[in-house]
Design a protein that fits this description.
The chain is built from 9 helices and 8 strands. The chain has a domain of 152 residues: Alanine racemase (TIM Barrel, Alpha-Beta Barrel), CATH 3.20.20.10. Helices cover 38% and strands 20% of the residues. The chain is α/β, with parallel strands linked by helices and 224 residues long. The chain starts with a helix and ends in a 6-residue tail after the last helix. Helix 7 links the parallel strand 6 and strand 7. Bound molecules: pyridoxal-5'-phosphate. Pyridoxal-5'-phosphate binds next to strand 8 and helix 9.
Length: 224
């Protein structure tokens, strides 16, 4: 197994202090995660519930596990006991289920709302309008055991840097608009999760507080 130490150091070193590195370990073995852990990395991202649960059981308890992928409501219960942050909450119905499972586990679960910023059709997420309406309408107050900590978005998968930058700018300005509305018990705009291997530099320039980097740290993923 090739050492990931040089990659990890390189990317940790490139990020400004206010931006956290989420090491995206999906499809990678626990040995690699353990190596990153030994190097001081504590935040890891996975996009499949079963894989996340399996890995969590085998690795140290002080790892912060980030669920970064699309989450089905019937699977929330498996990660609710331990997940640190759910990045891709794309509906009120999903929030409602997370709230229910958080109550069962007697904890408050931190969430980010995923905003649809890409021009591509396939991506999940709220539109800016529906999200503003949701927050202005005080809907989050219904969910006593969740805390909305910010927003997450994925830019169009393209080499066109201007396009990517435009999409990140749009997400940042929505973030700022929501932040201006002020904190409530349920909503506190602190985190902006944007940027992955191909576009994290642009994302950081545009105000990201969390980048989700997989390939650049762990190498290419083999598709099953
Ligand atoms: C896989 C994944 C990433 C990381 O992608 P890389 O290109 O390997 O850095 C980031 N965010 C989400 C939501 C992912 O599913």
């Amino acid at each position: 197994m090739e050492s990931i130490a040089p990659n990890l150091k390189k990317y940790q070193g490139q990020l400004p202090g206010h931006c956290r590195l989420i090491a995206v370990s999906k499809t990678k073995p626990v040995e690699m995660i353990a190596e990153a852990y030994a190097l001081g990395q504590r935040d890891f991202g996975e996009n499949k519930v079963q894989e996340l649960v399996d890995k969590q059981a085998l690795l140290p308890n002080d790892i912060q596990w980030h669920m970064i992928g699309h989450l089905q409501r019937n699977k929330v219960k498996f990660i609710a006991p331990f997940v640190a942050l759910i990045h891709a909450v794309d509906s009120g119905r999903l929030l409602s289920e997370i709230n229910k499972q958080a109550i069962k586990n007697d904890r408050v679960i931190d969430c980010l709302l995923q905003v649809h910023i890409a021009e591509e059709e396939s991506k999940f997420g709220w539109s800016a309008e529906s999200l503003l309406e949701f927050v202005r309408g005080k809907e989050p107050d219904n969910y006593t055991h969740i805390r909305i900590r910010g927003l997450m978005g994925m830019a169009t998968n393209t080499d066109d840097e201007l396009q990517v930058r435009k999409e990140f700018k749009r997400l940042k300005s929505l973030f700022d608009e929501l932040k201006k509305m002020g904190d409530t018990d349920r909503v506190s705009m602190q985190e902006l999760s944007m940027g992955m291997t191909s576009d994290f530099k642009i994302a950081v320039e545009e105000g990201s507080t969390m980048v989700r980097i997989g390939t650049a740290i762990f190498g290419d993923r083999v598709r099953k």
